[in-house]
Each structure stands twice: as C-alpha cells, then as structure tokens.
Amino acid sequence: MVECAISSHRSSLDRNFTRFSPQDATDEDASFLAHPSGVIVVILSTRHPALAKTINQVDFNVNKKKHRGVDRSQQTVIGKGKKGGLQLLPVTRLCLIKCADGSEYPLRAGVKGTLIEVNDRLLTEPTLMQTSRENKGFIALIMPKGNETKDMVNESDSL
Amino acid sequence: MAGMTLCSVCERQVRGKAKVEGGASTSTADGATTTAAAASEACALCFGTLNPQFVARVAADVGRAVKNDFYDVKDFVLSLNMPVSLILREEIVKMRDDLGFAGTLASVPFRIRAIDAYIGALYEATGLRPTKCSNLNLTITFSNDEFLKPDCDFLQDHFPDEFIMPAKKMRLAEPPPIESLLTKVKVLSIASRLQADVAKKFNFETPTNNCVSSFELSRDPIFLAGRYCKFSRNLPQSPWTADDHAGSGIVGGSVSEQVCQFLKQKSLADVTRFTASGREDIDVRMLGEGRPFAVQLVNPRKKLPEWSTIEQEINRTFNDIRVSFLRQVTRAEADILKIGEEEKRKTYTALCYSSKRVDPAMLAALQDKAPLELKQKTPVRVLKRRPLIERPRNIFQMHAIPIDDHHFQLRLTTQAGTYVKEFVHGDFGRTRPSLADLIDPESEVDILELDVEMVDLEWPPGNITAQQPVPNGLAK
C-alpha cells in the first residue's frame, strides 16, 4: 500500500490545481493555479524575465506617483463574500516587480474578479517569488467573477 | 337573556337535565333558558364535538389510518386541540353564575369531558390502548372559524389593548386581519382579566357548521449513537457537494446517507438526521475505533432489533464502512456531540514526502518541538465558502518515522479544527509554521495520504471502553 502510493506520487498541487496561462502572454501577464472550487492563485509565469534576474522588491502600492490607487497589501476582506476586496479587471495592476538591474515589471491581474489576499511575505522576502514560484512565492489569491480561465492555455494537460 | 342551545351530551353533563326530544325548552329560576338542540349536533358549548356520531366518525378515520400504517406499539397518548372560540366560551361560562348549570360535570374542564368522550371510541376503532405514557402520540385538531370575527369584535370592545397589531406586521403589503391575533394563548391571557359583568354580555350563538377534524399520528423519535470507520479513500462522509472536489472517482452515496438509508428502511422512519463529531475529507480514512456519530429517526414505525444484530448487518452490507458501539441514547445525550467542539483532540497518521533528502535526526527532533501553536489562514481549497481569517491551532504531540530517503510517516495529535494537510504542505506558506519549516525550510514537504486514528471523545456516553480522553493526549 505504501509502495504504490509512493511510486505514483503526484504532488498536492498537481492533484488539486490546474495550471493556466493566458494566450500570447506578455511580461505583464501572470500565470494561474485554479482550484475546482473557483479560487485562483496568481503566480509568476515560467517564462517571465524576472526569474532570471534578482528580485529586489515587490511593491503592492502601484500608483504612488499619481497619488491614487490602493496599496493592495493593506486591504482587509470580511465574510464569506470577501467584502472589501479590490474589484479587479484583467488590466488592473496587482504589483510592481523591481529587479536588481533596475528593470521594473508591472503585473496585471489578468482576470476579472475580487482580490482576496496578496502574499505579504513578498514584502520582506521578495526572492521567494523566484525560488518558490508555485509555493511560498505566490503573488495573490483571486475570486474570479465567472469562468475566467476558459480562454487560457491549460498547461496541466501538456504535462 | 338569549337561550343557549346545547347538544344532548352537554345537556346531560352540564345542564343536568335528562335528554329532551326536539325543540323543547326548560327554564331555570333565573329565567335563562337552554334549548335541547333539534339536531343534536349543534351545541354552543362543545360545537358538536361530543356528539357520539361525530366521535364515531373521527375514531373511524383514525382507525383506518392506524391500520394502514405499521406502528408496532400497543398504546398511545391522546391530545386534543379545540377551536379558539370554544376555549373562549369555556372561560366565559366560568365567570357566569346565571346559566343554571347544575349537571354533575358542570365544573369539569371541557378538555376532560372531550377526552372522556373519545377514549372509548378510539380504543374500539384502533385496538390501541389509551394511556398517559406512550411512544405514540395521537393529536386530533378541531377547527371552527365561524365565530372568529364576532368573538374578536366582542373582546376588542372590552379589551382593546390586547388587539393592537404589531407595527412590523402593519408595514407588510397585506397586513394580516385582526382576527389572526385571536389565539388560544390570547384568550387565556384575557381570561384572567375577565369580569362577571363583561361575561354576562356575551352571546352564545349556536354554530351552523360542524367542526372540521384532522389528526396526526407521530411516534417519539429514536436517537442512536455509535462510532463509524471509513476505509475508502473515495467515499465522502456527507452528501457530495460539487464545488468541493476535483470530480475524480465514482462515488455512490456517502457514509451518512448509507447508514441513514439502512436504518430508515429497518425502522420505517419518515426522516433520518445524521450528525457526527467533525468529519473527514473524501480521501481520508477514518480508522481506530471510529468517529462518534448520532442518527435521529423521526416518526419510526418499528422498534429496531438488538443493536449488535444491526451492527453486524450494516458491517456485512457495506464494505468500506464499519459501525461499532451502536446503542440507543436520549435526545440530551445526542446533543453532547456538538458541545465543546473546540476542546476535542484528534490523532492522525500522515504519509509525507520531502523534496530534499530526509535527515533522520531532524525527524527525531520533531518530537520535542511539540506542543506548538500554528497560525493557519483559511486554506485555499475551502476559501470559496469560508471567510478569510487566521486561526491559532495547537499541535499537542508529534512523532515521525523515516520510511526511505524522501518519505516518512508522521503521527500527530492536534486540536479540533486543525487543517492537517495544510500543516504538512504549508498551503502556499499561509500555515506557519509548517512541517517543512520545522524539519528543513529548504525542502518542500507534501502529504500523500492521511488517516484519522482517533477522535477523542467518550462516546457513546457512559461507554467506558470507547475512547476515554487520555491526559497527555496521546493514544495507545
């Protein structure tokens, strides 16, 4: 019983989530881990240029210059309906990735929905986004409005 | 003073005169008259409910219902619900001394006269013995709304403050009529304020309709307690909810549905209700002595055979479920299941995988890291239907055994409500500390299989062989 469990090991991630990426993704697009219940985990794409560099800072306050915009890391949500969560459109920016070589990459939500949580651990340990992209370095949790991943590439199929 | 029409039964019992044929009047010293009803059903006091023909009809209906059903009881308890108007009249009669009621039963409450009238006929029709104490309850309801409006008007004239419609109801699109305030409770509360002079003004109209009768047969619920084990990793504990799971595997019912269905068929109950002390995921086995559960059988027709026989039959019927310690309990005992959920402890074994090579020394060191407190944010897999909060939870004991370079078995005892899977794999770092944090922060740890070994609760109550809470929290 133990042997067959070990030999056919699929990780909890593989068993419970489906990986999605937008069609024709750009540097501003993130990838997603979708749970069957609906909740989406936003992660850095495997093809993102920042992966090869060193990430110095992840800034969730994306509109400082214009003195508007909300620091996504400061929001609180209440109740089952996640009231108070930022309403996102696909173009809404989640964060700004700042690398050691000076380059900056804004990251878009990519889906329509409610922002539930951002990974505030990235504020103190930004390199987690590179070293643990699908685990401790996740970016945010989103509750999508509808079937937001239907037009995306299902990367789990190709595994 | 208007005459009061009584039926022959009330005439005899209350008025004290022998039955008089059709229409004749008798008068008393005061001049108040009562008239024996031409059709002996019409009666201003009992509304015809004591009429022997009416009684026989109702009893026959009940008899038919009993014969068509399968109750295996020999006795029953009778309850009668009378029309509100009738209750009002009884109260008014109490305050009047001018009616000349001199019968032997004049001061006996109507309820008693009514039960007396029905008991014999019901025994004849059903073969069940009426008693004060039985599992089976027969409730007969008589209703007659003919006098609802006049009675309401009468009382409203004299006690207007009792008939103010609450503001909340007035705001509705269609506020209910004032008559809806006239209930049995209202009548009884007014009765305490009723004076003789007001009572004298009441007019005892004779009803033109018979009462409408309805009845309900209901047996007291049976509560069963036991513990269940679940040996399948593809069987949910409660009915499948589509948004929880990845939709893999064929599921034929759940533990609760299968156990309930079995008991329902054996007892011929109307409805079954299943409660358990917590639950396990579809892919988690429940081992050891099992998880405490209770089943309520609503309106059972048959008493169940001996518990050990049922247990054996359930265990023979279902491959992946085992029920033990089955026995009957009271409602109060069944409620214990839900009390103090937070304090209960559960023990698990988890088969774990580590991406980096496992260091046996680090595994051994785990034992000394307990007890420890975790902070768990609502796991991603349940986040859809639960609010996002961070919960503190305790791990009381841990013990890890290496299996090979990348696998080990972890046995742990936790506080109720701890998400064990999330403790092992960390849930994207949202449960801290996670097992990886404790063994090797550089490694990624994952859970392959989970079993529940013990649910710490003395259950069924009073059963000293089933799961006594152990002081240091660790099972044998």
From TrEMBL, chain A:
Molecular-function annotations in GO: actin filament binding; actin monomer binding
Superkingdom of this protein's organism: Eukaryota
GO cellular component terms, A-Z: dendrite; filopodium tip; lamellipodium; nucleus
Gene3D superfamilies for this protein: 2.40.50.100
Parts forming coiled coils: none
InterPro entries the record matches: Abitram, Single_hybrid_motif
GO biological process: dendrite morphogenesis; regulation of actin filament polymerization; regulation of filopodium assembly
Listed PANTHER family: PROTEIN ABITRAM
Protein name: Protein Abitram
UniProtKB/TrEMBL annotation, chain B:
Domain Pus10-like C-terminal: 223-456
The enzyme's E.C. designation: 5.4.99.25
Keywords from the UniProt entry: Isomerase, tRNA processing
Group of enzyme by EC: isomerase
Signal peptide: none
Keyword Electron transport listed: no
Domain Pus10 N-terminal eukaryotes, residue spans: 43-212
GO MF annotations in UniProt: RNA binding; tRNA pseudouridine(55) synthase activity
GO biological process entries: tRNA pseudouridine synthesis
Record family assignment: Belongs to the pseudouridine synthase Pus10 family.
Listed name of the protein: tRNA pseudouridine(55) synthase
